[in-house]
Amino acid sequence: MSEENETTEDEASAAVLSELDGDAVAQSGLAGNPDLEVVLDIPVKIAMEVGSTQITIRNLLQLNQGSVIELERLAGEPLDVLVNGTLIAHGEVVVVNEKFGIRVTDVISPSERIKKLK
């Protein structure tokens, strides 16, 4: 009896692993996979990063209206699209109906994101 249970558990584990296979998930799509339906309505914070720099507190306190802060990026370089602080894409600024937006130009692959975490 215990051998039958172990075999059944092994088969169940194999089935779960095949469901989690990246190709199977990609082929099923987000909406078609009921396991992912649970997380589709979770809010996430998305931010666009134009650039960054480091300055001393002394220089920060001296900023006035009209002050210019030099960033490490060149004009025209793509923006970083961050979701919960993780880089997921690059894009460019667009204006639609007098509102700013971003056009995604390059999406970071999941494997590249995992490499950056290590």
Compressed to H and E, one letter per element, the order equals HHHEHEEEH
What is the third-level CATH name, the topology of the largest domain? Surface presentation of antigens (SPOA)
Total beta strand runs: 4
Question: Which percent range describes the beta-strand content?
Answer: 15-25%
Would you identify the CATH H-level superfamily of the largest domain? Answer: SpoA-like
By DSSP (H or I, 4+ residues per run), the number of helices equals 5
Q: Summarize model confidence as the mean pLDDT.
A: 76
- Structural class determined from secondary elements: alpha+beta
The assigned CATH architecture of the largest domain is Roll
Distance between the termini: 44 Å
Descriptive account of the structure:
This protein has 118 residues and is of the alpha+beta class. It has 2 domains: 1-41; 43-118, Roll (Surface presentation of antigens (SPOA)). It contains 5 helices and 4 strands, in the order αααβαβββα. Strands 1-2-3-4 form a 4-stranded antiparallel sheet, with no helix packed on it. The longest helix is centred in the first third of the chain and has 19 residues, at 2-20.
Summarize the model shown.
The chain has 118 residues and is an alpha+beta fold. 36% of the residues lie in helices and 25% in strands. The chain is built from 5 helices and 4 strands; from the N terminus they run αααβαβββα.
Secondary-structure blueprint of this entry?
Elements: H1 2-20, H2 22-28, H3 34-37, E1 46-49, H4 57-61, E2 79-83, E3 86-96, E4 99-107, H5 110-117
Antiparallel strand pairs: 1-2, 2-3, 3-4
